[in-house]
Amino acid sequence: MKKLVLLILFTALSMAGLMPQQAAAQVDRGAETLYLRPHVGISYYMGDSERSPFNFDGDMFDKFPYNLGLEVGYQFTSSYSLGLAFRTGDYTQITDFEVPTSTEDHPTTRWGVGLIARSLLSDRKIAPYWQAGITVGGGTSYVYSPACAANTLAACAEQDEMSYGGNVGFGLDFFINEGTSFFIQTDLDIRTPDNAADGRDNNGFTGLDFLGSHSAGVSFNFKRVKPVELTDMVCPAEVVDAGTPVTFTASHADGATEPVLYSWTFGSGTSADGMTVSHTFDRAGDYTVGVRATNGNGKHESTMTCAVSVKDPCIPAAITSMRASNMNPDTQTSVTFSANVTGTDGEWRWDFGDGNTGSGANPSHTYAEAGIYTVTLEVENCAGVTRRTMTITVDPYEAAICREVTEMNSAFFDRNSSAITEEGRAALQENLEILLECPNLNVRVEGWASPGERRLQELSEDRASAIEQFYVDTGVPASRIISSGMGRSQDGSKKEGLAQFRRVDTIPVR
């Protein structure tokens, strides 16, 4: 039993080791409130009569070294407090005189009053703390003498001398709830003058006396917690861009017990703490943002939510290129248009330059008439409209036979005549069919005269004009025909005879 005090001294360390998870949690023990700390424990003394706090002579249960105390004070913050402590105890070691005689009848009760400042060293559920202060105390003691030490009570002289000094100590505070904690501590009063506490002034122990205790108790906080109530939550009113920081703010009603803690969730798997927070959404979508305010160590809470719509950021459209599947189509070939466009998606509008329009990324169009057309693409997105143009040349439709024509029929005339014969008309009819079917095919009409005919140049010109007129009258535009009189034929003919020189040749021209 003499080692009980040592066991209590190390209880704090053992309890902290048994409760590691609790020690990791942050708590609030209240602030700006009165508190009450009763405690009970074991007293010990060190001074001129005893040098060790762990040496108890005799049976300690015959005269138990109890220690009782009460502290009333003010909790400024969750960690700092100042209190007025009242303590009384039975310090049985104070009569451990060097003579081996019983001193059980000697007065050993002492009292003390102290102004104690205390500071917790963490905000965990199990928090170490230190304390220090100034004290004053007293109690009846016998003035030491050999006769008094021999328990000759008649030889003992009583004294009630006050002592003064300081207090130091440390302990562990175990959080129970916002208004209650359990604590264990050891502390020591350092008293002077030397004879006040034990009746001896031989300066055998530093000229000071030490009255200490190992105790446990409960701390009560008298401030009632007013639950927090959220009153406002400020969220963006419009759609926000992905990748852009967004600020959120919340507030609560006045009077809520502090501290009030805010925690946020953003619907994207992330969270943040604080009354005002900033968050960046990585992707477009609809999110539910929530805020939770708590006080009273999480016992009271209030929540609010808001909806946030997030879109991809608006990037102006830019048309980097335009293309056509055929840059030189004919009037029966469908052309597919495309373009390279960067930026945020938008609406594509095409103008094909012939009064027709299209939409989308790959429209197709067939031009009805040949010509040169300016194709315009407009892209409109959230940033506005951008446009670009390109030129395309459309040729008349040309059948496959048109590309194969290299020679056409010649028309032959009677001597000294520019009138078209029936045989000539038949030959020209075949040419006409080709010209009508091949609108992009032009011809050069060359008139010739044979030796011996009159007015050779004029006759060749008249014959060329007659053939030209035939083509025009049958539907071939004059713009596709070039006619000329070549005069007297200088070369031979495909066939023998002068009759072959009286002719008009129709020569294809591309």
Characterise the protein shown here.
The chain is mainly beta and 510 residues long. The protein has four domains: 4-221, Porin (Beta Barrel), CATH 2.40.160; 230-311, Immunoglobulin-like, CATH 2.60.40.10; 318-394, Immunoglobulins (Immunoglobulin-like, Sandwich); 400-509, 60s Ribosomal Protein L30, Chain: A (2-Layer Sandwich), CATH 3.30.1330. Helix content is 12%, strand content 45%. The chain is built from seven helices and 29 strands. The strands form seven sheets. An eight-stranded antiparallel barrel has the order 1-2-3-4-5-8-9-10. A hairpin with a 2-residue loop joins strand 8 (163-177) and strand 9 (180-192). The radius of gyration is 58 Å and the shape is rod-shaped. The model is unreliable at 1-23 and 492-496 (pLDDT under 50).
Task: Give a brief description.
This protein has helices at 4-9, 11-18, 20-23, 146-149, 400-404, 422-437, 456-473, and strands spanning 33-46, 66-75, 80-90, 109-120, 126-138, 141-143, 157-159, 163-177, 180-192, 209-221, 230-234, 240-241, 245-252, 261-265, 271-273, 276-280, 285-295, 300-311, 318-324, 335-342, 347-351, 357-359, 364-365, 371-381, 384-394, 411-412, 442-449, 481-488, 503-509.
How do the helices and strands line up, and which of them pair or pack?
Elements: H1 4-9, H2 11-18, H3 20-23, E1 33-46, E2 66-75, E3 80-90, E4 109-120, E5 126-138, E6 141-143, H4 146-149, E7 157-159, E8 163-177, E9 180-192, E10 209-221, E11 230-234, E12 240-241, E13 245-252, E14 261-265, E15 271-273, E16 276-280, E17 285-295, E18 300-311, E19 318-324, E20 335-342, E21 347-351, E22 357-359, E23 364-365, E24 371-381, E25 384-394, H5 400-404, E26 411-412, H6 422-437, E27 442-449, H7 456-473, E28 481-488, E29 503-509
Parallel strand pairs: 12-18, 27-28
Antiparallel strand pairs: 1-2, 1-10, 2-3, 3-4, 4-5, 5-8, 6-7, 8-9, 9-10, 11-13, 13-16, 14-15, 14-17, 17-18, 19-20, 20-23, 21-22, 21-24, 24-25, 26-29, 27-29
